[in-house]
């Protein structure tokens, strides 16, 4: 109950926030939060794969970039509407997710990490060389998409609300998946894949499905980013982006869904604040914060919050029945 | 009638031949034990039967169906389940969740994205039934890695049982147990054998001789004898390689 009240209060704050923009504070913050919402979608999808199923991909940027390019191209050349490219992005993410997943999941651990990395690199190099999509210059002049007749996303506020709505739907869907019968099998694979096989579950097929679902999240996130930035850069495929997705997830708390959303917010907002204050050295500080999390709270913000909460209540669990 | 038939089964790891030309019939409804010295190939035999390792030669028939090349999850669904020599459970999940996931494998909605696991009422009630049967209901909410070794072994048997097997492969279910736990486990195995055929690997000869209907003896990857407990105990080669003074 308390949990629900917190969620509703948070939602009310997020809904009210743009109303004070340009009056109480700069409209830039609305734009910054929109960015958080967009990135949080790919990160939530990644958490399904890495946090719940235990398969850490280092190539998730490939879905992000593919969604962005596909949507950018369609918005620029063929349709002012957001829905056709979004639908195509979902379909393309499913196809790419299936192919990359099918080939990658034959391996595990570091081999899986490097294979997914290699696939993303393939897309990165292709995007940098393919003139049709702008090569190294990227794809510029992507118009703001229409979502309903007479309603487009050119205003900062409308993009903010639209991204927030998509994030909420994506988050609730992900939560539903983790609570489903299928979700329990995902956790079984993460905890002990061999045992899960011996219980009669086709773990390969399950991981492919999660890979595809996770890829859809990445694609949708990229589709939104194309419209939001009005520009698609080949750097969306860069390993740094895949790395950031992992960092956001870990910093928030893998396998918690809420944590990765918080981690996304933390990294994007903190990155912005630090870069304003510290100019070029901000990434060093960001790196130090990340290292501190790994060393002292590998469960991320969520674990830290639980620890502090338990300390305050004086009921720290030492892990024995 | 034989529920499991092995014909000329062989398994090598590189130049090392671990199983050689094994022929074995496991009779339905009976408890069959596989015995032999360390390194005789007993666990490898379980591994090839359950699909963990592919065989190099021979065929394995389960209920007259060839399962030699079948993926191991399909073998489980066909009705053949196993426990492990080294406890193989979900250490960080609760005892309830361990059994729940095992029971869920027999649900029609086992892989459903659209069914919340908490709505699988039949899975929940069967999970509780199994927890009662293996005597672990009181630990239901405790992470499985935190219960005693003996209870973990029982949990593993419970998980195996939850998949509704017709043939249950138990690999040293009493290893590392106290004598009280051994006696409990044997009662449990006898109880299980009312519902399914049991194939057992066990080092404790008192248990093997008292519980088994049939015994097969392996030595250096070869089957050197089989028969009733009395026949095996009287077999001179078995006495020489394994039983010693029994």
What key attributes describe this structure?
heterodimer; A: 321 residues; mainly alpha; two-stranded antiparallel sheet; 4 strands; 73% helix; globular; B: 246 residues; 6-stranded mixed β-sheet; 25% strand
Strand and helix layout:
The complex is a heterodimer of chains A (321) and B (246).
Chain A (H helix, E strand, L loop, with lengths): L1 H15 L11 H25 L8 H17 L5 H22 L4 H21 L9 E2 L5 E3 L2 E2 L3 H24 L1 H18 L4 H27 L1 E2 L6 H14 L5 H21 L3 H15 L3 H14 L8
Antiparallel strand pairs in A: 1-4, 2-3
Helix pairs in contact in A: 2-6, 2-7, 2-8, 2-9, 2-10, 3-4, 3-5, 3-8, 4-8, 6-7, 7-8, 9-10, 10-11
Chain B lengths: L1 E12 L2 E12 L3 E5 L6 H8 L7 E6 L2 E2 L5 H7 L1 E3 L12 H10 L16 H13 L15 H14 L4 E5 L7 H14 L4 E5 L3 H7 L2 E6 L2 E6 L1 H6 L1 H8 L3
Parallel strand pairs in B: 3-8, 3-9, 6-7, 7-8
Antiparallel strand pairs in B: 1-2, 1-4, 4-5, 9-10
Give a description of the structure:
The complex is a heterodimer of chains A (321) and B (246). Chain A contains twelve helices and four strands. Chain A is an all-alpha fold and 321 residues long. A two-stranded antiparallel sheet of chain A has the order 1-4. Chain B is an alpha/beta fold. Chain B contains nine helices and ten strands. In chain B, a hairpin with a 2-residue loop joins strand 9 (214-219) and strand 10. The radius of gyration of chain B is 18 Å and the shape is globular. At the A-B interface, helix 6 and helix 7 of A face helix 2 and helix 3 of B.
> Quaternary state, please?
heterodimer
What would the average pLDDT of chain A be, to the nearest integer? 91
Termini separation of chain A comes to 27 Å
The largest sheet of chain B has its strands arranged as 6-7-8-3-9-10
The order of strands across the largest sheet of chain A is 1-4
Residue windows where pLDDT falls under 50 for at least 5 positions of chain A? none
Largest sheet of chain B: 6 strands, mixed
Average pLDDT figure of chain B: 92
**What is the rounded Rg of chain A?**
20 Å
Helical segment tally of chain B?
9
Q: Strand pairing plus helix content of chain B: what structural class?
A: alpha/beta
Provide the helix percentage of chain A: over 70%
Strands of chain A, total number: 4
Largest interface: A-B, 27 and 41 residues
